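Hi, can you check this record?
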Amino acid sequence: MSLAKWIDFQSLGDERGSLVAVEIGQEKAVPFAIRRVYYIYRTEPGISRGFHAHKALRQVAIPVAGRCRMVLDDGFRQEDVWLDNPTRGLLIDSMMWREMHDFSKDCVLLVLASEHYDEGDYIRDYEQFLAGVR
């Protein structure tokens, strides 16, 4: 079974362009109330991000432009996935170690979060993460 859980958003559009609406509480929608939205952009070549897990926070990562590679790790398995489709969001559950690599120059990664920022929710040490899931 894959660690990656995808949410496929409907793309609407015509000759003027495309539009994706992100909704809560609908089928194929974000499965939590969104309390924080942020985006990562202008990540320099060779820079990786993440390297943490969250105790309770859940997220959906959507590549609104460009692409990047996400490494997911549940403490037992690792899986690499490419985020490269603006109509597809990656659901990242709590207690999932994540790393982001190989950002394209034009990458803009939008993240929808279930909670407000709380430094106490982060696990930034991989060995501590493993101890919490094993």
Summary: The helical segments are 126-133. Residues 126-133 form the longest helix (8 residues). The first strand starts at residue 5 and ends at 8.
